[in-house]
Write a structure and sequence with these properties.
Number of strands: 9
CATH topology: PH-domain like
Radius of gyration: 18 Å
Helix content: 25-40%
CATH architecture: Roll
Strand content: 35-45%
Oligomer: single chain
Number of domains: 1
Number of helices: 6
CATH superfamily: Pleckstrin-homology domain (PH domain)/Phosphotyrosine-binding domain (PTB)
């Protein structure tokens, strides 16, 4: 067993610590071992007037990875896709064993540099984020002179240079209260409700 896994197991078995203390300690552990671990994943989309682009939004202990989904992945992602990263889930749940965790699904293996980022894949370090907003709202649509209102969750990421707005569908990610709770509990930055 690696030193990282031993430390993780000790952290999980520490009954004196609350969930939030375990999460903060997990961040320190990742920093100590220079690991970029997947913390939380959401499925989101950006709608333009005529098209919709679907994205996987992956929160790590150091930043946010936003990757555009391919057509095949869109077809296969028909169910619930959001969730805690494997190590965080292990820390907070009695049902998950350390042996069940697949390492390839737990860490970000390739570093992000300007040379390997594209329009379909980009990375935002938490230090670059000036504000992160998650809220529940209503979008109105007008088709054939009839209007309808649709409830959505929205995620907005503001950096010093840009802003990114995503629609976060409840069918793939869960209800607003649960998502907001896990964003607030597991990320190292403040989450606003606009």
């Amino acid at each position: 067993m690696s030193k990282f896994n031993e430390s993780l197991e000790q952290l999980k078995n520490n009954v004196q610590m609350s969930e939030s203390q375990k999460i903060r300690s997990f961040y320190k552990l990742c920093e100590e071992f220079d690991k970029e671990s997947i913390i939380l994943r959401l499925s989101g989309n950006i709608k333009n007037r005529f098209t919709r682009s679907n994205y996987m939004i992956t929160f790590t202990n150091k930043g946010i990875i936003i990757s555009k989904k391919g057509n095949l992945q869109n077809l296969l992602d028909i169910g619930y896709v959001a969730g805690l990263g494997p190590f965080l889930h292990y820390l907070l749940s009695d049902k998950v064993k350390l042996d069940d965790i697949k390492l390839k699904d737990s860490f970000v293996h390739n570093g992000f540099s300007p040379s390997n980022l594209t329009n379909d894949l980009f990375y935002i370090n938490y230090k670059e984020i000036s504000k992160l907003v998650f809220y529940h709202g209503v979008e109105t649509r007008v088709t054939n002179m009839l209007g309808s209102a649709v409830n959505y969750n929205f995620l907005k990421v503001y950096t010093q240079k840009d802003s990114y707005s995503f629609i976060i569908p409840a069918k793939k990610n869960g209800d607003h209260k649960k998502i907001f709770y896990w964003l607030k509990m597991s990320l190292p930055i403040i989450i606003y409700r606009e």
